[in-house]
Design brief:
single chain; seven-stranded parallel sheet; Rna Polymerase Sigma Factor, Chain: A; 11 strands; 46% helix
């Protein structure tokens, strides 16, 4: 039985993880949960899974939760609570808190040699070298949960990296794939969050609409698979059945196919190195709609180009890009800026950043703070 901690238990990945665990209660023991502010759902998860400790983002939410559960679990809050939650009793920590909020506790788990099921791609985007080098020192395994990176991970089982030519990440194209530039000017937050294939959280859904999600995945793949950026490509595949390709040097294409259901890559990470014992949704070839592919439109969706630029520059630039994207994206969802302004702000913040080439973790966190402040000023119109 694996002892599991879930950072982000009330989000889409967290609830999906608990559903996987629910189906095989003898395989996993949930010893810790962490969430933002959803007290009601956390109380329900505590009643069902009975973790030893839980963490809420704020002190107020933690206090309300304590009253609800009457001492059945220890309730902590904030970053210090997350650090206390990550302890040596865990076999696997599922990192599913969006953004960089999980960076410090995830690094603590890695330094302790605890395996990580990674859904928060921002950790590797902002601090990939720190995360990967720490894992190499401690022996912690980084198991990808993103469907695309899980697909690559599965395709590479038994293969030698020196025989890999390229990694090809598939992208659904999001809800605005067929829109023109003029049509993109007036899209609303509700339309941006209405993904045609996947049910995801707000941030990931918006990042899919801008295609920044795929840009972040390019940078994540670079670190996960130790492969140069110029050997990572993106192809639009609206049906979301093939989750990514690996092209071998002999021209062979390896692909992982399944119906779009995040529980499959979650389960693959939880059960690794064996496959899950049950099927969530069978993929029936005879009933599949035709599978299509097209090149991404980088003029309409400049996020991909910005991500490759950030990765090429390296240092603190990816952290800056990520932070600016979070601030600008949230501003759009709050109807403060237009959809097209998101990437305009990200590009402008990147253009003003003085890069630290080989940053310490403290310098990465400072670059993150600076970018958030700069992007916030641009949202408010305080920067020309």
């Amino acid at each position: 039985m694996k002892n599991i901690i879930i950072l982000g238990s009330t989000g889409s990945i967290g609830t999906g993880t608990l559903d996987v665990i629910r189906r095989d209660p003898g395989a996993f023991n949930v010893i810790g949960l962490a969430a933002g502010g959803n007290v009601e759902l956390m109380a329900s998860q505590i009643a069902e899974f009975q973790p030893d400790r839980v963490v809420m983002a704020g002190e107020k939410e933690a206090g309300i939760l304590r009253e609800k559960i009457k001492g059945s679990s220890e309730v902590l809050y904030g970053e210090s609570g997350l650090l206390d939650l990550v302890n040596d009793d865990a076999d696997l920590v599922v990192v599913a808190i969006p953004g960089t909020n999980a960076l410090i506790p995830a690094l603590e788990a890695i330094r302790r040699g605890i395996d990580i099921a990674l859904a928060s791609k921002e950790l590797l985007v902002a601090a990939g070298e720190e995360v990967i080098s720490s894992a190499a020192k401690s022996g912690s395994a980084i198991l990808p949960v993103d469907s695309e990176h899980s697909a690559i991970f599965q395709c590479l089982q038994g293969e030698r990296m020196e025989e890999v030519d390229k990694i090809i990440l598939t992208a659904s194209g999001g809800p605005f794939l067929d829109l023109t530039g003029d049509e993109l000017k007036d899209v609303t937050p509700s339309r941006a969050l209405n993904h045609p294939r996947w049910k995801m959280g707000r941030k990931v859904s918006l990042d899919s609409a801008t295609m920044m999600n795929k840009g972040l995945e390019v940078l994540e793949a670079r670190w996960l698979f130790n492969i140069p950026l110029d050997r990572i490509e993106v192809i639009i595949h609206p049906q979301s059945v093939i989750h990514s390709f690996v092209r071998m040097r002999d021209g062979s294409l390896l692909a992982q196919m399944s119906s779009p259901d995040m529980r499959l890559p979650i389960a693959y990470a939880l059960y690794y190195p064996v496959r899950p014992p049950h099927c969530f949704k069978e993929t029936t070839l005879s009933t599949l709609e035709p599978l299509t592919f097209e090149e991404p439109n980088r003029d309409l969706f400049p996020a991909l180009e910005l991500a490759y630029q950030a990765g090429t520059v390296g240092g603190t630039m990816p952290a800056v890009m990520n932070a600016a994207n979070e601030v600008a994206g949230e501003a759009f969802l709050e109807n403060k800026i237009s959809f097209l302004s998101i990437m305009d702000i990200v590009g402008r913040v990147m253009g003003e950043h003085k890069v630290v080439s080989t940053p310490a973790l403290s310098e990465i966190m400072e670059a993150d703070r600076w970018a958030r402040e700069k992007a916030g000023a641009m949202v408010r119109g305080e920067e020309s």
